[in-house]
Every structure is written in C-alpha cells, then in structure tokens.
TrEMBL record:
Pfam families: Aldose_epim. Belongs to the glucose-6-phosphate 1-epimerase family. The lineage of its organism: Bacteria, Bacillati, Actinomycetota, Actinomycetes, Actinomycetales. Keywords: Isomerase. InterPro entries: Aldose_1/G6P_1-epimerase, G6P_1-epimerase, Gal_mutarotase_sf_dom, GH-type_carb-bd. Gene3D superfamilies: 2.70.98.10. GO terms for biological process: carbohydrate metabolic process. It catalyses: alpha-D-glucose 6-phosphate = beta-D-glucose 6-phosphate. CDD domains: D-hex-6-P-epi_like (cd09020). This is Putative glucose-6-phosphate 1-epimerase. The active site is at 154, 255.
Length: 284
C-alpha cells in the first residue's frame, strides 16, 4: 500500500501537517515549541487503519458500538467510520502575513444506502493552525428526521512523561470510569498512576501541566458536553500494535466530545458546531 496524501503548511507562527484520510491533523508545531500533538512512530499511514496520534475525528459514534446511544448496525467498528474515510478537501490557505494556515474538509454520508448508520449527514472540519490551533466541526442533518449522533476530536497531546502530568479543570465533575466500569466524581486534579479511560460530563476548559516539557497546554471548547481523558498505560499499549515501545508515556488524550449522556440529537435545519482551541504557555 502507498502512503496517504498529506498537506503541510508553514506560517510565521506555526507549522502543521494534515491528511484528507479522516480529515486528520497529524502535527501542529507553534513556533518555539516541540509538537503539541503526539504521533506514534508505528502509526499506520497507508489508509488501511485509523491513525494512532494527532487528532482523529470520531463520528458518528464514539467507542464500542455496543455502548453507543446511536445504535450502529451489525459489523460497526470502534469510533465510527469518519476516521477511516477519505474526506473532501474544500480548500487550504498558507498566508504570508501572521494569519494562521487553514484547511477545510467535508464528509457526506448517505443514510439510505448505509446499514451501519441509516441517517444522512454532512460533517465539515475547519482547522486554523497558528499560535493557537482551532478545530471547528460542523454537523448538519441532511435527512428528513432527527437522529442521535456522537462526535469526538480525539486529541493526542504530546507530553514529556504522562506520569508527571496534571490535568486541571475537572475537579468536581462526574465521569464514567471505563476501566473500573462505574461512575465517580473527580476530586482535585487528574494525575496518572495506571490505565485511565474516563468520560467526564463537562463543558469546562482543561489545562494539561507538563513539567518535563515545561509547558501548559490549554484546551478550550464549545458545543461539547463531554471530555474524555485517556492513557492506556503499559498494559493497554502492549495490546496495540501501532504504539512503539514505551511511547505510551509520551501522550495523554484529552478529547473534546459529545458522547454517551451528552450525545447530540441532530435536527434537520439545525447544524451543531463543536470547537476545540489549543494554546500553549511556557511554565515559569
Ligand atoms: O484504539 P482506538 O479505537 O483508537 O481507541 C482508543 C481509545 O479511545 C478513547 O479514548 C476511548 O475512551 C478508549 O476506550 C479507547 O481505548
């Protein structure tokens, strides 16, 4: 298999790399910082499998199909088909002034012919990569009835060592713990001492404090009622062929999402817009 097509952009404030396969952002490097996104050294980039790292777009369901309120049909895979579908590139810009680089992609799904998800929708992803990263996902119902849909920007943040990282902003929030299979309430900041897979019901900004890389990554969002925090730890990573030896320590996923209890009901004539903004600050 040949590698998927990629497009790169270099502007004064950042560089970025993206592919129409899944409308997947693979890299965002604001000037003066190492990549804010983690991409596995073993990521499969030939279009046969979802890409491990960057920002996969999970749509129209999240996680295992059996857990999803969207009730996908028989044979559905995890996290929906958007991340393994070719999206149409609508346009890209690489301005010479201080404006961000931009990319726009669209995916049309025809429900009439789909056993997996029998509802028609259009998804559009607009990415602006500069000193900040903005990703805007617009979901439009192209059908004649409302339907349930889940969405996640499954962002892999690059960190020095997940064992030293603190995630601020979720104190007091309810979450479903997919490792322990129970609901709980967050007390204080999130730290990592083992496999972590939590679906928070939260609309709040989250900050990832990374003492090893000496930076704070700020994740702001809108139109998103869920935040997923995930790291598979050594035991989970050992079951995944596309994570390199020891590399699980170099990322934490903080996902801007609308899933489970916060899944969306998409109505004809009422698009839903979900945005995620990433920014980086150097620690004192
Ligand atoms: O391996 P994938 O299908 O890409 O999923 C990777 C992970 O994604 C999310 O964070 C889920 O909450 C996890 O349960 C899942 O393991």
């Amino acid at each position: 298999m040949t590698d998927i097509a990629t497009l790169s952009a270099d502007v004064s404030t950042a560089s970025a790399l993206v592919t129409p396969f899944g409308a997947h952002l693979l890299s965002w490097r604001p000037a003066g910082h190492p990549d804010v996104l983690w991409l596995s050294s073993r990521a499969v980039l030939d279009g046969t499998k979802a890409i491990r790292g960057g920002i996969p777009v999970c749509l129209p369901w999240f996680g295992s199909p059996t857990d999803s309120p969207t009730r996908p049909g028989q044979g559905a895979g995890a996290h929906g088909f958007a991340r393994t579908s070719p999206w149409t590139l609508l346009g890209s810009t690489q301005p010479a002034n201080d404006a961000p680089a931009s990319f726009s992609f669209e995916l049309h799904h025809t429900g009439e012919t789909s056993a997996l998800y029998p509802h028609s929708f259009c998804a559009r992803l607009d990415i602006a990569a500069g000193a900040e990263l903005n990703a805007t996902l617009t979901l439009t119902n192209d059908d004649d009835h409302p339907f349930a849909i889940e969405a996640a920007l499954h962002t892999y943040l690059h960190v020095g060592d997940v064992k030293d990282v603190t995630v601020e902003g979720l104190d007091g929030e309810r979450y479903y713990d997919k490792v322990r299979e129970r609901y709980a309430t967050q007390t204080g900041d999130v730290t990592f001492i083992g496999p972590t897979d939590r679906v928070y019901t939260s609309t709040q900004q989250v900050q990832v404090v990374d003492p090893k890389l000496g930076r704070r990554i700020i994740v702001d969002k809108n139109g998103s009622g869920s935040t997923i925090v995930w790291n598979p730890w050594s035991q989970g990573a050992a079951t995944m062929s596309d994570i390199g030896e020891g590399e699980w320590q170099n990322f934490v996923c903080v996902e801007t999402a609308a899933v489970r209890e916060r899944a969306l009901t998409l109505w004809p004539g009422h698009p839903h817009i979900m945005t995620q903004t990433l920014a980086v600050e150097t620690l004192d």
